[in-house]
Amino acid sequence: MSDVTTVLLAGVGGQGTILAGDVLAKVAVAAGHDVKLSEVHGMAQRGGSVDTVVRFGPQVFSSVVDPGTVDHLIAFEIIEAARKLAFVKPSGRLVVNSRNIQPLPVLTGTLSPPVGLIAALDYERAVFLDAEELACEAGSPRSANIVLMGAASVGLPFDEEAWREVISARVPPKTVDANLKAFELGRNACEGGACEA
Amino acid sequence: MSRTLMSGNEAVARGAWEAGVVVGVGYPGTPSTEVLENLVGYEGVNCQWAPNEKVAAEVAAGVSVAGARVLVTMKHVGLNVAADPLFTQAYAGVGGGLVYLVADDPSMHSSQNEQDTRNYAAAAKVPILEPSDSAEALEFVKRAFEISEHYDVPVIVRTTTRISHSKSMVEVGEREERDIPEYHKDAGRFVMMPANARVRRVDLARRLNELETCVESCPENRVEMRGTELGVITSGVAYQYVREALPDVSVLKLGMTFPFPEALVGEFAAKVERLAVVEELDPYLMLRVKALGIEVMETGLPQIGEYSPGLVAAAFGAPEPELREPITDLPPRPPLMCPGCPHRGVFYALHRLKAVVTGDIGCYTLGALPPLQAVDTCICMGASMGMAHGMELIGSAEKPVVAVIGDSTFAHSGLTGLLNMVYNGSKGTVMILDNRTTAMTGHQGNPVSGVTLAGDPAPAVDLEALVRAMGVSSVRMVNPHDPGEVYHVLKEEVAAEHLSVIVAKAPCALLVREKADPFAVDEDACVKCGRCINLGCPAISKDPQTSRAVIDATICVGCGLCVKVCKSDAIVPSGAACDIGGRWS
Ligand SMILES: Cc1ncc(C[n+]2csc(CCOP(=O)(O)OP(=O)(O)O)c2C)c(N)n1
Questions:
Q1: Percent of chain B beyond pLDDT 90?
Q2: pLDDT value at A82 more than 70
Q3: Contact criterion met (CB below 8 Å) for B548 and B528
Q4: Same domain flag for B280 and B367
């Protein structure tokens, strides 16, 4: 179904992938698309791997995706980017937060940390940014998810204004300014072709 | 009318509201929980958490007999608990429309099994509707109320995780306000003693007979003819996968799958050269199609786990898409207890005690995972105490046996297990982990925490007094953030010749808004003993070079558990909290 665009947001429970996916879905609705979004709640949210899928186009059937079908992978963490790589089409785009959250078996020394992920993802033409650093610059460390959506937005067919409207309506009122700034910083980090695959 | 994006759970709530429900009642359980959490936001509906699904179904039965429309919600395993009222209510029938929203969890994202609720509909002889997106979830719930009242029977609406937690476009409408008729006693219908039940059993057969006619022509069951070469019978979310993977095939989309529309299936089968069935979980449709003597194509699709468009496409011979080379050998990322979780200290103490732990279901089930691995069993909600008692009867475990149960689970189905221990003279040890909430499912209030679904205060159960009143003489309170205290109290109680209950009370870390300053490791003092690392706290790691402990100040919430387990005073307050802030808060 080539007229449907598939975005996969991958991260670790607690990183705000659900809110980010919701923002993207609402932007796509505002642009007149049929939209489906799928996320997993519950057990996995306690620090496990989590993902949210957003698909939009003239008519969308499935909200779950298979390997080799994702157009945009927005990874909130490096290991999760690597875990989801096979889901991305060969022509797909990868935006990766350069932060690393080691899983518990690595923290406790039971398993060794994976090596060479940046190089491997770089080879796959991933674009990296430090979302936490930009979020701090925006004035709210918790806006890293919106920084990443700013970066994602560069490759998605929606007006900047539409994003800003949805973000303003969706985040807690006190944090609107910081989140709009976060969006802008993420977008700037990728503009001028820096984020083009 | 307006179109908006809603999850299946939001759409079910909306549908119930539009149908004029007056009461929503249930017990939390992924993926069903958000239905009531949304419904409570609508005007004119009284929404409540019950202590368990059986009580919820009984409250719903009362509302229905009193003449009003009611929605009762639960996850699939909740219907095991509520099955008793359901099976007999089918005989009795309804007053106001009575709809069960039951959410299945194929692939067990957040569940202990993946039972298929459609079998319950057939066993209890009640109609079941299976929406395949949010728009249908809203419509089917409204229809379910009409069917319930028209055919005088409770109706199940069955969703699955990908319906409940996927968002898609819905058309919303207005609420239909309904008058509640005056109550009239009708003992022949609602007193299900044998003489009456025998009459109602025959009447249920009559009602089912009418429903069998209904399913053949109802709008929920529809034929989409595209070609005659291949026809697929499908239901629920599997319909979406069929449409995506096989856009050109004819489809018989079944929205009401009990009673089973035999004639419709026969007609559809006659129109296509080959017939296949695509459904998640049990071969519910498949067996019924085959029972009609219709030949069904072998697809090799599994009866375990969720489907996807790719899985369906491959089963019908589509070529594999081109893939990137996967990156392999990545460490798994299992869920874990949050930093500051009060359960951690308890499992550290149980691990030290080398106890056999009969566990229960909740965040504390994570105590079964490395590094503590301090849980021996987890079967279903409330099982911890029955199982501890059973193990005590055999006495084969050399080690002490301790039952561990959360506050919400204790209120759900723990009371009877404890009563059994009292009654049958157990000398066992029970720990109630009272974290003041139902954490696992997203922090719902419960009778122990004393917060209602609407967020209002309720009388909070005094666990100590309750347990004493049940006949437990030794009741001890401990601070779960002090594993030394927990260990010593446990040690005394497992050795004692009496039944004891230990209540570990401290709020869930995610409910604590104010974070304390983080700690740091004094490198010179750290002797690399690994005690703090064994807590399995995501803020603490072992430096691969030096083997010393390292604390990530961005994750640490300053609970101080590691300070208490450190024997060399190497964990100290850290001055400068990192400006990045905890991601886990
Ligand atoms: C019969 C049944 N109903 C609901 C659930 C979903 N569920 C799993 S654990 C849980 C409650 C956990 O609360 P609590 O015992 O207080 O432990 P906590 O998660 O707070 O540690 C619920 C509702 C289930 N597994 N089985």
A1: 95
A2: yes
A3: yes
A4: no
Pocket lining: B438 vs ligand 1, CB cutoff 6 Å: yes
Q: Is residue B338 part of a domain?
A: no
Per-residue confidence (pLDDT) for residue B93, from 0 to 100: 98
- CB-CB neighbors (< 8 A) of A34 in chain B: 168-169
A139 touches chain B (CB under 8 A): no
The position carrying tokens 């179109």 is B3
pLDDT in tens, B187-197: 999 999 999 99
pLDDT at A39: 87
Please indicate, yes or no, if residue B582 is contained in any of the structural domains: no
Q: What's the mean pLDDT in B400-406?
A: 97
Which residues span the domain enclosing B305? 221-315
Tell me which amino acid residue B481 is.
Answer: H
Length of chain B in terms of residues written: 585
Please tell me which residue of chain A has the smallest CA distance to B538: A104
Residues 67-96 of B with CB under 8 A from A: none
| Structural domain of A128 | 5-190
Per-residue pLDDT of B497-517, as tens digits, reads 999 999 999 999 999 988 899
Upstream peptide bond of B331 is cis (omega within 30 degrees of 0): no
Structure tokens at A148: 């990443």
Q: Which of B181, B215, B249 is the last residue of a domain?
A: B215
Total domains in the fold of chain A: 1
From B100, B114, B408, B453, the mutation candidate for ligand 1 (largest count of ligand atoms within 8 A of CB) is B408
The whole-number pLDDT of residue A193 equals 57
Under 8 Å CB-to-CB from B37, ≥6 apart: which residues?
Answer: B442, B444, B453
pLDDT of residue B575: 61
State residue A47's pLDDT score: 83
Q: How confident is the model at residue A197 (pLDDT cuts 50, 70, 90)?
A: very low
Distance B381 CA to ligand 1 centre (A): 7
Q: How far apart are the first and last CA of chain B?
A: 39
The enclosing domain of A106 has a CATH number of 3.40.920.10
In single-letter form, the type of residue at position B124 comes to A
Cα of A187 vs its chain's centroid, Å: 13
B578 within some domain: no
Residues A103, A108: Cα–Cα separation, whole Å:
9
Per residue in B514-542, pLDDT (tens digit) is: 889 999 999 999 999 999 999 999 999 99
pLDDT digits over B429-460, tens only?
A: 999 999 999 999 999 999 999 999 999 999 99
Where does residue B560 fall: left (phi above 0), alpha (psi -120 to 50 degrees), or beta otherwise? left
Where would I find the beta strands (DSSP E) of chain A?
A: 5-12, 34-39, 49-57, 70-75, 88-97, 127-129
Q: Which residue in this structure is represented by tokens 């005394």? A: B492
Which DSSP string do the residues of B472-538 spell out, in sequence order?
--EEEEE-TT-HHHHHHHHHHHHHSSS-EEEEEE---GGG--SPPPPEEE-TTT-----TTGGG--T
φ, ψ for residue B358 (rounded to 5)? -85, 115
CB contact under 8 Å between A112 and B544, yes or no, is yes
What's the mean pLDDT in B329-354? 96
Chain A residue numbers with beta carbons less than 8 Å from the beta carbon of B343 are none
Q: In the numeric block, which tokens belong to residue B287?
A: 């067996």
Which uninterrupted H or E stretch holds B25?
strand B23-26
Query: What's the burial of B529, exposed, middle or buried (CB within 10 Å: 0-12/13-18/19+)?
Result: middle
Locate the DSSP E strands across A3-109: 5-12, 34-39, 49-57, 70-75, 88-97
Mean pLDDT of the region B406-425: 98
Kindly state whether residues B496 and B547 are assigned to the same domain: no
- Tell me which chain A residues have a C-beta less than 8 angstroms from the C-beta of B4: 29
Q: What is the pLDDT of residue B578?
A: 39
Q: Which amino acid is at B231?
A: G
Q: B580–A101: do the CB atoms touch at under 8 Å?
A: no
Say if A60 is an interface residue toward chain B (CB within 8 Å).
Answer: yes
- Say what the pLDDT of residue B2 is: 85
- Specify whether the backbone of B455 is left (phi greater than 0), alpha (psi in -120 to 50) or beta: left
A171, A135 contact by CB (below 8 A): no
